[in-house]
Amino acid sequence: AAARKTVEAYTRVCAEAGFAPLSLESEAAAVARAVASAGDLSPLLVLHLAEDDAGLYIVSGLSPRFSSTVPLTSEAIAMEPAALAGEAQRVCSFWETHAAKEGNGGAVRRAVACGRGAANTRTLSLLSAALHLPVEPALVWRNVLSVEREAPLMPQGDSLRFAVAVGSALRAFSYA
C-alpha cells in the first residue's frame, strides 16, 4: 500500500517519459521475493542497507508484513550501527506485539542483510551483537537457482546490491 499522492506522482512521471506502467510495486516486496525462503513462514527481519537509506522489513514467506525506512546511509550505519539496531529492535518489538494479538507470526529469530552496506562483515557482526540475532548476508539468488547445486556467476558480495532487481524479475517467475 502507498499513499495516493505517491502513486499518482509515479504514474505521472512514467506517462511523461512515454511509458505506460502496468503495475507498481514496493521495494520491500521485491527484496522479500529475492531473499526470503518460499517455504519458511517464520518471521524474518530483512535489513536492506541501501546507499541512501535503510529498509527494515518483517517478511513471512515471500511477503513483507511490515516495513519501515530509516534515513541512514550505508556509510553512517558502518560507522554507528547502533542507530539502525535501535530502530530494528523497535520494528521487531512492534511486530511481535501485534502478531501475538492476531495469532500469527511470532518472534523474529534471525535477520538477513542486502544492499550496498550488507557486504561489510564488520557492520553485520555489530548489528548481530546489538540485535541479539544472527545477521547474515542474504542469498539473493535463493529463489532463482539452486545455490546448493549451482554457483552464481556473480560473487555474493556483489549480488547483495541487486536484491531489488532480482526480486522484481522474480515477480513473473516461479522456481520449482
List the helices and strands and how they pair.
Layout lengths: L3 H13 L10 H9 L8 E6 L4 E7 L2 E8 L3 H6 L1 H22 L8 E4 L6 H11 L3 E3 L18 H4 L3 H7 L7
Parallel strand pairs: 1-4, 4-5
Antiparallel strand pairs: 1-2, 2-3
Helix pairs in contact: 2-7, 4-5
What portion of residues is helical? 40-55%
Please give the count of helices. 7
- Distance N terminus to C terminus? 29 Å
Give helix and strand order, one letter per element, not per position.
HHEEEHHEHEHH
Shape: globular
Unreliable stretches (pLDDT < 50, length at least 5) are: none
Radius of gyration: 16 Å
Q: Give the integer mean of the pLDDT values.
A: 87
Residue share in β-strands? 15-25%
In short:
With 176 residues, this protein is α/β, with parallel strands linked by helices. The protein has helices at 4-16, 27-35, 74-79, 81-102, 121-131, 156-159, 163-169; strands spanning 44-49, 54-60, 63-70, 111-114, 135-137.
Question: Could you walk me through the main structural features you see in this protein, from its secondary elements to its overall organization?
Answer:
This protein is 41% helix and 16% strand. The chain contains 7 helices and 5 strands. It has helices spanning 4-16, 27-35, 74-79, 81-102, 121-131, 156-159, 163-169; strands at 44-49, 54-60, 63-70, 111-114, 135-137. The protein has a 5-stranded mixed beta sheet with strand order 3-2-1-4-5. Strand 1 and strand 2 form a beta hairpin. The chain starts with a helix and ends in a 7-residue tail after the last helix.
